[in-house]
Design goal:
Blueprint lengths: L1 H13 L2 H9 L5 E6 L5 E8 L5 E6 L6 E5 L3 E7 L3 E8 L5 E8 L4 E3 L3 E7 L10 E7 L6 E5 L4 E2 L5 E7 L7 E7 L4 E13 L4 E13 L2 E7 L5 E6 L7 E4 L4 E10 L4 E9 L6 E4 L2 E4 L9 E11 L1 E6 L5 E5 L3 E11 L9 E7 L7 H20 L8 H30 L6 H32 L4 H29 L5 H33 L2
Parallel strand pairs: 1-10, 15-24
Antiparallel strand pairs: 1-2, 2-7, 3-6, 4-7, 5-6, 8-9, 9-14, 10-13, 11-14, 12-13, 15-16, 16-21, 17-20, 18-21, 19-20, 22-23, 23-28, 24-27, 25-28, 26-27
């Protein structure tokens, strides 16, 4: 399976021979390998001697909001949070003298002047007992030459992108590593969300991915890893198709943007494709086994899976859906939130859905179509004898007024969200749940009506089609941001995310909502003036 291979490939990159040799060479030593990838994520590999049948690694508590994922091949992990430190306790499955722990951190690479980045991160794994020495190794991407490093006992190698040294320190305390290096080829690209839709009725899949460039080099394309043998049907954003190049044998897909993505900008990419049979799901005696897959070597903070069931009733699932809805005539859509997803642990995120087949009306469709055709012929003949009706200008003006009203209603819903956030009532679990659900429903209703009125008005006002299209896209982006906020809120309500991290996620999401709200208000005003001429 490509999913397993891809996860193992990630581990292989992290534990490639000359890096892994440092850790493997002395099993009793305390070791830390810090590797920065070209998108600014920190992969940290710690080798820790066992003490009493388990090992604990500590990090400063403030880094908890930057922690993306953790993993070990050696056993199970338990997260414990104390006043100043959070601990990852590794209990090995079998007898061993040491264990290896892999952690991933994000948003730690900061700008330092026009040409450099900097990182401050613990040079040592914090331990309960003083182990006195730690062997530290650092690896950066090509072109990101190290210009400054502290402590000075860590020496930069000849290639300027690696450094290594032994620190004689009290390992029960945090000793920070300070590193400054060239931007090189680094692009601080951050996935905002990754949504996977599986349509079981036609065996098609769709990824909806939003990427944001935080800093570093601008980019004009992005590579995805689709399952080998997939057939790509379409790549697009919300408005238009995007060019792509695809190797079906390897699953490597390059999607080109319609512009260079600059710092602070985001790009939505929608990929529709036919995956190999049984790759994402298997159906066994009324149970659907879902196997999610991450199409890139990046961690994403919001991964959702939507499953479209044809002629089936949902009974239960090992993961509770965040939404269940019916689609006419015979489909049910289940949406599941996996929260944070990373390449290291994606293979462990599968879940089961129990369904019950229901009788289908599709065998009778040919007969129904025949009857419909006869009725249509008589209807056309009857209609042709009547004068053609066209909506009056007054009716179009009324629809234009309703469109502006819906835009104002959507803006009002966004402001209610702002009041929830600024008043800190988002943290009140009993208060925020019904209000977020209400706002979410209001936003969905406004966006639906905006789309409906817009389609009618585009026929009557061809000169403002571009403005109407832009307004529709902005309203959908607001809806996506609200959906993303609801997913984060749901995870906070269920205890899947800590209050500190939730606060940070809400603040980031609110910035996005404010940006789109400002754009919506301006576009709505411009459209109102254009339609009133």
């Amino acid at each position: 399976m490509k999913k397993t291979f891809f996860s193992m490939l990630v581990l292989a990159v992290l534990l490639f021979s000359y890096s892994y040799y440092v850790i493997e060479g002395n099993e009793q030593a305390l070791e830390r390998l810090i590797e920065v990838d070209r998108y600014g994520f920190l992969y940290v590999i710690d080798n820790i001697p066992l003490d009493g049948g388990y090992a604990e690694v500590g990090f400063p508590k403030q880094l908890l909001s930057n922690l993306i994922d953790y993993y070990t091949l050696d056993g199970s992990i338990e997260l414990k949070v104390e006043e100043q430190t959070f601990w990852l306790k590794v209990s090995p499955r079998q007898s061993s003298s040491s264990v290896k722990l892999i952690t991933i951190f994000g948003d730690l690479v900061k700008r330092s002047g026009a040409e450099n980045f900097k990182i401050e991160f613990p040079a040592n794994p914090v331990t309960r007992e003083n182990l006195e020495n730690v062997n530290v190794r650092i690896i950066l991407p090509e072109g990101s030459n190290i210009s400054k490093i502290s402590p000075s006992t860590i020496e930069v190698r000849e290639n300027s992108i690696e450094a290594q040294g032994i620190l004689s320190i009290d390992t029960t305390q945090v000793h920070n590593l300070q590193l400054e290096f060239a931007v090189g080829e680094i692009s601080l690209l951050k996935p905002i969300y990754t949504y996977l839709t599986l349509d079981l009725s036609i065996n098609q899949a769709e990824y909806n991915v939003k990427l944001s460039l935080r800093d570093g080099n601008t980019i004009d394309s992005f590579y995805f890893n689709l399952p080998n043998g997939s057939r790509v049907l379409e790549t697009r954003d919300h408005l238009k198709k995007l060019p792509n190049s695809y190797d079906e044998q390897t699953g490597k897909l390059r999607v080109s943007f319609d512009r260079r993505l600059n710092i602070g900008e985001s790009q939505t990419i929608i990929i529709k494709f036919e995956p190999p049979e049984n790759f994402f799901y298997k159906i066994e005696e009324g149970t659907i086994l879902i196997s999610p897959y991450l199409p890139f070597n990046l961690s994403t903070p919001d991964y959702r899976v939507s499953v479209i069931l044809p002629s089936m009733d949902y009974i239960s699932s090992s993961l509770d859906p965040i939404e269940v809805k019916k689609i006419y005539p015979e489909k049910t859509v289940l949406t599941f939130s996996l929260g944070i997803a990373s390449p290291l642990t994606m293979d462990l995120r599968g879940f089961n859905v129990i369904v019950k087949p229901v009788p289908s009306m599709f065998p009778f469709i040919p007969y129904m179509l025949g009857i419909s055709a006869i009725v249509m012929i008589f209807s056309v003949l009857a209609y042709s004898l009547k004068p053609v009706f066209k909506p009056s200008l007054k009716e179009y003006e009324e629809k234009a007024k309703k469109l502006i009203d819906e835009v104002e209603g959507l803006a009002s819903s966004c402001r209610v969200i702002g009041e929830l956030i600024t008043s800190k009532k988002m943290l009140d679990k009993g208060y925020v749940r019904p209000r977020m659900l209400g706002i979410r429903n209001d936003v969905a209703r406004h966006v639906s009506k905006i789309a409906s009125y817009s389609l009618d008005l585009k026929k009557a006002y061809p000169e403002v089609v571009d403005r109407i299209d832009s307004l529709m896209v902005t309203s959908r982006m607001i809806q996506e941001s609200i959906e993303h906020l609801w997913t984060q809120t749901h995870r906070y309500l269920t205890g899947a995310v800590a209050k500190t991290l939730f606060n940070r996620q809400v603040e980031e999401n609110y910035k996005s909502i404010l940006k789109y709200l400002d754009k919506l208000v301006k576009e709505g005003e411009l459209l109102r003036k254009a339609l009133s001429r």
